[in-house]
Amino acid sequence: QAKAAGRRTYQRYTEQMEWELRQRATLSGALRKVLENGELRLVYQPRLSLRTGAITGVEALLRWEHPYLGLIPPNHFIPLAEESGMILPIGEWVMREACTTLRRWRQHGLGTLNMSVNVSALQLLRGDLPRYVAKVLADTGVPGERLELELTESVVMAKAAQAAQTMQALRDLGVRLAIDDFGTGYSSLAYLKRLPITTLKIDKAFIDDIAQNRDDKAITHSIIAMARTLGLYVVAEGVEHQAQARLLMEQHCDEIQGYWVARPLDPYRCLAFLRNWRSGVARFEPA
Ligand code: C2E
Ligand code: MG
Ligand code: MG
Ligand code: MG
């Protein structure tokens, strides 16, 4: 009986592994043609200033719409794209697409809007990223100051010396640099201080229970306090409820991003959202 059950479990286990391997192979194959087939698009998630109630910018988030595999989330294909090196041309497409959209929106009176773009380790370590960014900025007429690149903690930590030069070259273009998913890796703020970073994005994991959990509340409080000491701008990710927003405002967090403000939106809807936005401060008034 137990043996049979064990065998069934084992069988399910291997079937699951085989399925995952096949899935990976299918995705990797399809990924090679993603650009020529025009299957990528960007959605944009607004960021709200807790100081002014204004929307200060948007983060570009990648979507892959495959004709028969459907919508594939970035967490599924970006690791594959990194393994194969496809992330390099994909990353260039993202940079150009995001800046082209910003250029269009700037013509609609959104001249101070910022665009954040996620950049993967490989792109940063290649070293020619600043040259490419400079070209896209020149081609689209977007000032470097309007662009922010989001880097993950792990890269910056593992290859700090190598990354630091590239980071400084980007800063020289006026581009701001954010550490994404802050708190999930190993970096200490003291260490980050040595890098030309401008912004910290506190990972959603710390925000989730901030309104209920005293430890989480204390953690965000001290991250914000230390960031302030180091002159870094702080953004909280994954804010889904008003109670979280309120608390972060009390803790003097600069900006928030999350479903409570807006979901990631397609460019058309995002433009409508941005043009209709008056002031988010009204949302904090007692219900
Ligand atoms: P990220 O940069 O930390 O982006 C935030 C993720 O959280 C996004 O997931 C966003 O849709 C989601 N999110 C935002 N607010 C909320 C919320 O209130 N609740 C919940 N549950 N989720 C929220 P998404 O779009 O699936 O992207 C996942 C990750 O994939 C990103 O995490 C980023 O690391 C990576 N990624 C996305 N686009 C790109 C890209 O163009 N290039 C690279 N290299 N990575 C990208
Ligand atoms: Mg990000
Ligand atoms: Mg993040
Ligand atoms: Mg994240």
Would you mind describing this structure in some detail?
Helices cover about 50% and strands about 20% of the residues. An eight-stranded mixed barrel has the order 1-2-4-5-6-7-8-9, surrounded by four helices. It is of the alpha/beta class and about 290 residues long. Helix 3 packs parallel to helix 5 (about 130-140) and helix 5 (about 130-140) packs parallel to helix 7 (about 160-170). The termini are far apart. The chain has helices at about 1-30, 75-85, 85-105, 120-125, 130-140, 155-160, 160-170, 190, 205, 215-230, 240-250, 265-275; strands at about 40-50, 55-65, 70, 115-120, 145-150, 175-180, 200, 235, 255.
Secondary structure elements and their pairing?
Elements: H1 2-31, E1 40-49, E2 55-66, E3 70-72, H2 74-84, H3 87-106, E4 114-118, H4 121-126, H5 129-140, E5 147-152, H6 153-158, H7 160-172, E6 176-182, H8 189-192, E7 199-202, H9 204-207, H10 214-229, E8 233-236, H11 242-250, E9 255-257, H12 267-276
Bound molecules: ligand C2E and magnesium ion (MG) (3 copies).
Organism: Luteimonas gilva
Domain EAL: 24-278
Protein name: cyclic-guanylate-specific phosphodiesterase
Secondary-structure-derived class: alpha/beta
Overall radius of gyration: 21 Å
Give the overall shape, derived from the CA principal axes: globular
Q: Please provide the count of β strands.
A: 9
Order of helices and strands: HEEEHHEHHEHHEHEHHEHEH
Please state how the strands of the largest beta sheet are arranged side by side. Answer: 1-2-4-5-6-7-8-9
* Percent in strands: 15-25%
Protein name: cyclic-guanylate-specific phosphodiesterase
Domain EAL: 24-278
